[in-house]
């Protein structure tokens, strides 16, 4: 054997040894990670904070097609018969309205909010085909449950709730059976125009995940959530640590993280039914208002508000301070409340 052959054999032996060592390393990594992942996937949901416990204890439940739906109601201003229903956004819950609840209670006779199916304290069935149409039917069922069928209803909505509100508006304007009689509609920072709506990266991944969705939804964690939700708040109006935790707890309650991919189909529904929902908004004679946080990366300024004012020319608009983003009722509750009450008192 020549010297070159001997060197070559030694080199091949070294490579084989290196590959063997690397393989053993990955095996050890796998042996460590697999049980850790298995443990993580079975982490129980966090305990309710005192704030969440108080919110839940002052609410109630009604049953819709076998599912339990949470709602909260309070009686406020005497001498007024006005009723307002609050429709929250994705991925949070009726708790989004806690900062403006009391001011609304001083103006309205009844203030009502619910957790949509799949959100907050409501049931989160799976598998289930979540849809804007079903959520609108839940709102109608709640109004019936509360004996308000003959009342004119003011609707105040945000984000996902904006689209539910537009379906309710369509049914009302077309006299569909069981429809609400809508007195006014106020929208806020909802992706009502697919062409100006920019879903977050994680939303796009989850809604199109297909067979990977069960894995990806189980891998969602508090840090990922905080990073995602923090990006849609302004830099000077970030949630407190407790607000972050309460939002996350509401998602994890009843394993809500596992239905996120199904709920996110609302993005595709908005595109499919654009003519129905945008058409209802542009043709209605119901008083309509938009409260808008202009720093919103989901519905960016000025693209969104220009499209809104162009298409919904009958509507009035309140644009809040430049540092207010996607959750205006939480980021600027005073400005939001003033804008809303100015609208309500204008007709």
TrEMBL record:
Keywords: Endoplasmic reticulum, Hydrolase, Membrane, Transmembrane, Transmembrane helix. One of its GO terms (biological process) is acylglycerol catabolic process. SUPFAM superfamilies: alpha/beta-Hydrolases (SSF53474). Gene3D superfamilies: alpha/beta hydrolase. Residues 83-333 form the AB hydrolase-1 domain. The gene is mest. Belongs to the AB hydrolase superfamily. This is Mesoderm-specific transcript homolog protein.
């Amino acid at each position: 054997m020549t010297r070159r052959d001997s060197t070559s054999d030694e080199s091949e032996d070294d490579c084989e040894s290196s590959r063997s060592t690397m393989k053993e390393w990955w095996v050890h990594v796998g042996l460590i990670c697999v049980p850790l992942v298995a443990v993580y996937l079975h982490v129980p949901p966090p305990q309710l904070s005192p704030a969440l416990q108080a919110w839940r204890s002052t609410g109630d439940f009604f049953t819709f097609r076998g599912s339990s739906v949470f709602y909260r109601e309070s009686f406020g201003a005497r001498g007024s018969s006005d009723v307002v229903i609050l429709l929250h956004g994705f991925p949070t819950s009726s708790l989004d309205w806690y900062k403006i609840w009391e001011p609304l209670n001083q103006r309205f006779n009844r203030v009502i909010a619910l957790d949509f199916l799949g959100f907050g304290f409501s049931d989160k069935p799976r598998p289930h085909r979540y849809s804007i149409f079903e959520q609108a039917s839940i709102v109608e069922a709640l109004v019936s449950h509360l004996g308000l069928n003959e009342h004119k209803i003011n609707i105040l909505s945000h984000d996902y709730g904006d689209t539910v509100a537009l379906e309710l508006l369509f049914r009302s304007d077309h006299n569909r059976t069981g429809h609400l009689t809508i007195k006014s509609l106020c929208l806020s920072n909802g992706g009502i125009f697919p062409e100006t709506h920019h879903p977050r990266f994680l939303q796009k991944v989850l809604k199109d995940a297909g067979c990977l969705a069960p894995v990806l939804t189980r891998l969602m964690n508090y840090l990922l959530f905080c990073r995602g939700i923090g990006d849609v708040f302004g830099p000077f109006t970030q949630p407190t640590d407790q607000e972050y935790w309460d939002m996350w707890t509401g998602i994890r309650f009843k394993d809500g993280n596992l239905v996120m991919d199904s709920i996110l189909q609302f993005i595709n529904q908005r595109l499919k039914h654009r003519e129905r929902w945008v058409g209802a908004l542009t043709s209605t004679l119901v008083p309509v208002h938009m409260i808008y946080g202009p720093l919103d990366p989901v519905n960016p300024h000025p693209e969104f508000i220009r499209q809104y004012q162009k298409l919904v020319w009958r509507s009035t608009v309140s644009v809040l301070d430049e540092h207010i983003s996607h959750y205006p009722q939480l980021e600027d509750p005073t400005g939001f409340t003033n804008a809303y009450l100015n609208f309500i008192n204008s007709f």
